[in-house]
Amino acid sequence: MKHDPYSLTELIRNEEFIAWVMHPDELSDRKWRAFLEKHPGKRKTVESAREYVILLAKDTGRHQPTRKQSDRMWSVVESHMHDSMQKVPDEETAPVLKATRGHGWRWMRVAASAALILSIGSVSYWFYYKKAEGPVQMVAVGEEADPPRTIRRFNDTDKPMTVLLQDGSSVVLQPGGQLSYSEGLNKKRREVTLTGKAFFEIVKNKQKPFLVYSYGLATKVLGTSFTVDASSGSKDIKVEVRTGTVSVFSISNLDNSRKEAVLDKPELEGVTLSHDQGIAFSKESGKIVQLPPATAVGADKDVSKQQFVFDETPVSEVFGILESVYNVRIVYDREKMGNCPLNATLMGQPFKEKLEVICNALDAQYELADNQITILGRGCK
């Protein structure tokens, strides 16, 4: 297989690329944007590598090994990478950039972690971009003792994609967005990495914070609903709160020990936002700008703009709204249930909690399969 200096394995150890991801400046940003414009076929690989860098940056050491130790580690890592990538089709080959091999524990651990990720067939780059099908991505619930697995969902459609997380939280991923997370890995916090735009509805857990990482920015919540817009083409990362309280802070300048302490504790710190507040974080300068208050007026299919307040609302109308904003199909007996009235306020509740409230009111049950929800019950007649 022809050597590709811009493959996933090469990018995650390219010092220049990592510097751009973790500490972007105007020069590096302009250079990599020009590269992507010239080689659009590399966009998915670059976004994938960017997420690995951000995820793995948390697990980097600070002490330096000897060159002999480093070279020995790299030889093992490269052999695993080579074996894992044998099954992945060649990608477009681009002009060579200087890629420097680090000789620190930092890059040994990053590379070893990357090799481990790549060695798991179901978590390979090709699998996630070619096998993720359907608007609703159901995730199998695993035991905490199971080996951690990295999961990636990429929305390559022109409609929203609803992702249901292991803890019951839901994420509505907009077209072009990508979400990465691990399961059964961290008992102290829930973590995802986002590129693109997504609306989060998070299950409350005061002891286990939920964090969204985007280009060195962390958005931390204990249970709330909010939007993060971390589109690659934008100079800013926007965070807008729908319900509850959110804290936003940069993790780029925190050392490893300080970072772990900040991320683990359930208390919120940094810039704190509440209902209908928002900020814009500059990728270039790191400055934070307050956004004007969010409004609930918007497109009918925008989940972040929905009030989800139902007052004697026919269930057929309620299901129609859910189908539209979550991009799912709901199957039910319209004759028995369609005219049943619903009285509920569901704003901020994750998708599955909404279904549970509705089914309790109908004395019904629901079943999930791919992007279809089947409601089973006698209805109100």
Would you kindly provide a written description of the structure presented here, covering whatever features stand out?
The chain has 381 residues and is α+β, with helices and mostly antiparallel strands. The chain folds into three domains: 8-122, no CATH class; 132-291, Jelly Rolls (Sandwich), CATH 2.60.120.1440; 306-377, Phage tail protein beta-alpha-beta fold, CATH 3.55.50. It has eleven helices and 19 strands. The chain has helices at 8-11, 15-22, 26-38, 43-57, 67-85, 105-119, 125-131, 256-264, 315-326, 334-337, 351-362; strands at 136-137, 149-154, 161-164, 170-173, 178-183, 190-201, 210-214, 217-221, 225-230, 236-243, 246-250, 271-273, 278-282, 288-291, 309-314, 329-331, 341-345, 364-369, 372-377. The N and C termini lie far apart (65 Å).
